[in-house]
Amino acid sequence: MFDFSSVDILDAFTRELQLCKVHEGEHVVVLSEPGSRGDYVAAAFGAAKSLGAHVVSATVPGGSPAPLPSTHTGAGPGLVSVLNDTATQGLLKSADLVVDLTREGFIHAPLQQEILKTGTRIIFVCDAPDVLIRNLPNKQDKDRVQDGVNKVRSSSVMRVTSTAGTDLTVQLAHCHPEFQTGFADDPGRWDHWPSTMVLCWPEFSDGQIVLAEGDILLPFKEYVQRPVTLHVAGGHIHEVTGGAEATLLNTFFEDSQDKWARSLSHMGWGLMRSADWFATAMYGKDELMGMDARAFAGNFLWSTGPHPHLQRDSYAHLDIAMRGCTVSLDGTDVVTAGHLVEG
Hints:
The protein is of the alpha+beta class and 343 residues long. 27% of the residues lie in helices and 28% in strands. The chain has ten helices and 20 strands.
């Protein structure tokens, strides 16, 4: 009996690397660790080779001999073995594209910025095969997210409201608007396949956030069962009240022993129309990072912990994805009651 699933994975990686503008003569490094998926390593290697690139597969030691349950969170520093290895760092900095297939990537590690400054592109991939294939991006996605970035850049205030009781006012001055579009096609670009979202890094926000039943707590990959109210002032969470999920959040903040754990980080909204809100419930927690929830079209995604523009190095990082919110910029809706406003 033949396993033909590898054909679909190779095809998806080939289309993804084409979006990343891999071409003949480029140097591609496929970065993995012992816990990475072998079929992804082979697919990325084969895709790069078929596009005429010089390709190297580099496997580095994992973060621990047996990957911990905290992997696939997007919260860690990345592989310590790479953070402490200048030879591997040099390899990554010399590449045109790094296909990062490690379990955590380097999302919040300063090293990633050092690599990107050399012009290296990085595409991070860690979700399940059908999640990748279902959410394969297209060129038009970049125009959509850049339009959102331009709207944030030209606005002064973001307001987020919901029938559940959310009413948050966010000051957008110096908020460094960014986007993720699912492919890395420009020099010095990091991106995450799959991901289509607009985000920014504000400093000041005030009001309250009310998590409704069915909102998703990441990296716990749990759906909220009882409403949770978070009181925010000056960009910091001062009180969390509600049921079991409120206790979970308060315990996480306290156990982290991190002074930035209760500080708001990035926030924005998703544009990935192919995303499945219920994917988080259909997989084992170690099978995916949860990009369906993070990039779901019309969601409001907000985070805690790290803030590179305020020099806040923190791994006490939560992503919380909410449905049913209205997101407005200077009084104009970009999301209304959880639905994208087109045009």
